[in-house]
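Researcher: Go.
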Amino acid sequence: MMLYLAWLLLGAVLAALFIAVGHRAKFLDFKISMAIGLVVAALIYVGFALAWGGPQWVLIEALGIPLYGAMAWLGLRKSPIWIAVGWLLHMPWDLFVHYIGPGFHVAPEWYMFACFSFDLIVGGYLLILFLQKSPTESIPS
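Model: Structure:
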């Protein structure tokens, strides 16, 4: 039990760092940083599938790339809420595919827990932030 809490805490700390770096990165807009991170989160699972999942799992995990890529694109073109929704939708992927689902062998258990809390914190933070902003306001750097 303590180990699971440690992994969740790791994800929370990494989420806070990711958000802080996203706000301070002068070379990228905050929304673009969060959108790129969403696609990278999907790519990481493809990497795990290449290492431990086999061809079927590479294909399954690769399905996440257009899904989360579409959320990122919609978030940059239409409303940034889509980026937040993408991060929040990544949580069920962690839970139902990799923890209690058939892909439990694809990703390390510690990563699934850390990713779950990471997704929750990043997605929740972005949802609150983007809901507070009108479409014409810029996101703080």
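Model: Residues 5 and 17 are 18 Å apart (CA to CA).
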